[in-house]
Amino acid sequence: MGSQWGYDKAYMRAKLEGYRSRAAYKLMEIQKKSGIIRDDDNIVDLGAAPGSWLQVERTLTRGRVIGIDLNPIATLDGVETIVGDINDPEVLAELQSMVDVVNVVVCDASPKLSGHKSYDQARIIELNEQALLFSCRILKQGGNFAVKSFQGTDFPDFYQDVKQHFHSVRTMNTKSSRKGSTELYVIAKNFYG
């Protein structure tokens, strides 16, 4: 477990409390404010490594929790994982063979940042669009979606895309995000199907 931003309070707290990264607190805050996960939901977590969101999700539902990432995810009790790219039809087929109904899709994935804001923002929006497309393929009607993004020139168009598929869409910032970060989360509820 590590933090590219150093050993700040959130990192140290996560390490002390047994979470794989500080990101665990972001999902806790999203859940507290938005209630996107119900206690019987099946959840698919995109870009799930190292697994801190999976750790939190396992405590929020009795349903299935499935993480997908390009990299292997260390084993967690009660969590299933798929190693692969969400753009690969075989990954979609494997997921569909594992679970009939998906109630919630979350994505906290981020590209490795280059330090060039416009380039980094374009890359995260591309990831966001891939996550949205994947979600639209697997979510049940009425399902929920949450995805990390960055504020910037491309963000409004992505936000409008999400609004075409969900009844309720809003953004939120989390207290656990690094100070000065343009990071925000899109919280979309009640998928039209």
Automatic annotation (TrEMBL):
Residues at the active site: 148 (proton acceptor)
Keyword Cytoplasm: yes
EC number: 2.1.1.166
One GO CC annotation: cytoplasm
Domain of life according to the entry: Archaea
List of residues binding S-adenosyl-L-methionine: 51, 53, 69, 85, 108
Residue ranges annotated for the Ribosomal RNA methyltransferase FtsJ domain, each copy included: 19-191
Principal location class: cytoplasm
Enzyme class: transferase
Catalytic activity entry: uridine(2552) in 23S rRNA + S-adenosyl-L-methionine = 2'-O-methyluridine(2552) in 23S rRNA + S-adenosyl-L-homocysteine + H(+)
Molecular functions per Gene Ontology: rRNA (uridine-2'-O-)-methyltransferase activity
Transmembrane among keywords: no
HAMAP family registered for this protein in UniProt: RNA_methyltr_E
Functional note: Specifically methylates the uridine in position 2552 of 23S rRNA at the 2'-O position of the ribose in the fully assembled 50S ribosomal subunit.
Database matches in PANTHER family: PRE-RRNA 2'-O-RIBOSE RNA METHYLTRANSFERASE FTSJ3, RIBOSOMAL RNA METHYLTRANSFERASE
Protein family: Belongs to the class I-like SAM-binding methyltransferase superfamily. RNA methyltransferase RlmE family.
Protein name: Ribosomal RNA large subunit methyltransferase E
Naturally occurring in which organism (per UniProt): Methanoregula formicica (strain DSM 22288 / NBRC 105244 / SMSP)
Lineage, broadest ranks: Archaea, Methanobacteriati, Methanobacteriota, Stenosarchaea group, Methanomicrobia
Gene designation: rlmE
